TrEMBL record:
PANTHER family: EXONUCLEASE, PHAGE-TYPE/RECB, C-TERMINAL DOMAIN-CONTAINING PROTEIN (PTHR46609), YQAJ VIRAL RECOMBINASE DOMAIN-CONTAINING PROTEIN (PTHR46609:SF8). CDD domains: PDDEXK_lambda_exonuclease-like. GO terms for biological process: DNA repair. This is YqaJ viral recombinase domain-containing protein. Residues 10-112 form the YqaJ viral recombinase domain. InterPro entries: NF-kappa-B_Signaling_Reg, PDDEXK-like_dom_sf, Restrct_endonuc-II-like, YqaJ_viral_recombinase.
């Protein structure tokens, strides 16, 4: 019922009731002394239909095809996963790459005319680290999505 994600009314309804994986890192990394009002407002009231999101959605199909070609596997579409022991937690990946691999597709409008490599080197994506020479390193384990 939620495989269409943002095009599904059920998906939109469930997302409003869950602390989703995309926000979980920010919540976990909050300091006890930090007020939560700003983050709660951002989670509950962020627009799901702004220009940047429309751009990302319109390029997701091609990004998925490029990824499938790169990894030699189909990325299966999926809906929301809800943690049964904690039904207020959920995740809505853009796909499943295998039994144990979720896929999150990002097409930032700030990287509009760049290749993935150029996007990373221009630091338009913060999912990657850089070594002391400025070369791309590993996945950024401090990123709130990790």
């Amino acid at each position: 019922q939620t495989i269409l994600q943002s095009d599904s009314s059920k998906w939109l309804e469930l997302r409003r009731k869950l602390l989703s994986a995309s926000h979980f890192g920010r919540v976990c990394k909050m300091r006890p002394t930090t007020g939560c009002e700003s983050l709660v407002k951002q989670i509950l009231y962020t627009a799901v239909d702004c220009e940047a999101i429309r751009y990302g959605r319109s390029h997701e199909v091609n990004a998925r095809k490029d990824l499938e070609k790169e990894i030699g596997k189909e990325v299966e579409k999926c809906g929301i996963f809800i943690v049964s022991e904690y039904p207020f937690l959920g995740g809505s990946p853009d796909g499943l790459g295998s039994k144990n691999a979720t896929v999150e597709i990002k097409c930032p409008s700030s990287a509009k005319d760049l290749t993935p490599e150029e996007t990373i080197k221009a630091r338009k994506s913060t999912f990657w680290t850089f070594d002391k020479n400025g070369d791309v390193g590993d996945i950024n384990r401090n990123h709130h999505f990790y």
